[in-house]
């Protein structure tokens, strides 16, 4: 009988109980309103409260039952896992006691690998690495190792890759810092890992300061954060420089706003790594014409991504045209960056 009633009601009994409690409350109100017996009204009210209590207790019991089932399931899973682990440990024990070495010995060999064999393996691994990586990749890895060895860092530096200058380029740039005057000004078009490394080189050499022009506020913020982590705020500055239309000769470009660089004078090292190519095909061309007047005699100029056709044309035009009384001498290619020396006629 109890099962039949439970099957009939199913999960609807809380709702029925609530309806019964409400009905009892209504009956109590009606009895009082009609001037009926207060005892009857109180009895109806107590019945409603009893039904409400049953609903609450039943819900709590149902929740407890569900938790108990969940715990029971977890215990079963834990027991199964324990049995699996015990079986695995037992199997390992049997293999360790096997005089022949078991399947494990068949895989790695029963004999011990002595120091000479390990040396041969390392040599073989090195040769595999040489055949896997190109000479350029090995050169970049070597340059990166040199950077950390020469400068070291107190915290993480923005990683290379993407739009960042290559390790070979940055290594050459930081090595040039030592040859610059005590009050040297280094200007970078674009910002990122190269900004941090140049600032580290200035701090290590005890000379120079870095000013980076960055049109992208998010990238500027990341570079500023990296400089702050290294405590380089006193030797490096990142200026948010929105792009604005500019006409150079017969060409129209979007370049860094003049208000962000017009105060720069006495530039000893100019590293042109921006704006990025998506801004325009020859987006980096204005760097020399617009900043030539600010270059010191003998200043060094570096144009990144010189292997690309657009930058290759820019390098040729800079060499042929010069700007504002400044002529460039080709200093050769390092990695993917072409270097020049500026001189005044």
UniProtKB/TrEMBL annotation:
One of its GO terms (molecular function) is methyltransferase activity. The keyword Calcium does not apply. It comes from the Bacteria. The chain crosses the membrane at residues 12-33, 39-61. Keywords: Membrane, Methyltransferase, Transferase, Transmembrane, Transmembrane helix. GO terms for biological process: methylation. SUPFAM superfamilies: S-adenosyl-L-methionine-dependent methyltransferases. This is Class I SAM-dependent methyltransferase. The lineage of its organism: Bacteria, Bacillati, Actinomycetota, Actinomycetes, Jiangellales.
């Amino acid at each position: 009988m109890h099962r039949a009633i439970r099957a009939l009601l199913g999960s609807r009994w809380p709702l029925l109980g609530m309806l019964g409690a409400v009905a009892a409350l209504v009956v109590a109100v009606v009895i009082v309103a009609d001037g009926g017996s207060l005892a009857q009204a109180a009895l109806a009210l107590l019945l409603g409260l009893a039904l409400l209590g049953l609903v609450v207790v039943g819900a709590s019991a149902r929740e407890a039952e569900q938790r108990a089932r969940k715990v029971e399931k977890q215990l079963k899973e834990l027991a199964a896992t324990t049995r699996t682990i015990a079986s695995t440990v037992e199997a390992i024990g049997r293999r360790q006691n096997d005089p022949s070495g078991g399947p494990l010995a068949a895989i790695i060999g029963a004999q011990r690998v002595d120091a000479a064999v390990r040396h041969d393996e390392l040599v073989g691994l090195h040769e595999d690495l040489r055949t896997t990586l190109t000479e350029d990749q090995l050169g970049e890895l070597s340059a990166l190792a040199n950077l950390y060895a020469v400068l070291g860092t107190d915290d993480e530096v923005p990683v290379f890759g993407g739009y960042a200058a290559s390790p070979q380029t940055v290594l050459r740039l930081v090595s040039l810092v030592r040859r610059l005057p005590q009050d040297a000004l280094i200007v970078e078009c674009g910002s990122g890992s190269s900004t941090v490394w140049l600032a580290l080189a200035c701090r290590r050499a005890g000379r120079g300061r870095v000013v980076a022009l960055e049109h992208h506020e998010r990238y500027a913020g990341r570079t500023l954060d990296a400089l702050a982590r290294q405590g380089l705020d006193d030797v490096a500055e990142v200026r948010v420089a929105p792009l604005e239309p500019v006409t150079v000769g017969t060409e129209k470009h979007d370049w860094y706003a003049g208000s962000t660089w017009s105060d720069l004078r006495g530039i000893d090292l100019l590293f042109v790594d921006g704006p990025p190519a998506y801004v325009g095909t020859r987006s980096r061309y204005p760097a020399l014409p617009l900043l030539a007047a600010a270059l010191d005699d003998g200043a060094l100029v570096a144009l990144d991504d010189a292997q690309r056709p657009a930058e290759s044309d820019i390098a040729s035009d800079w060499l042929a045209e010069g700007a504002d009384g400044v002529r460039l001498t080709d200093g050769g290619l390092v990695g993917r960056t072409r270097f020049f020396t500026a001189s005044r006629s």
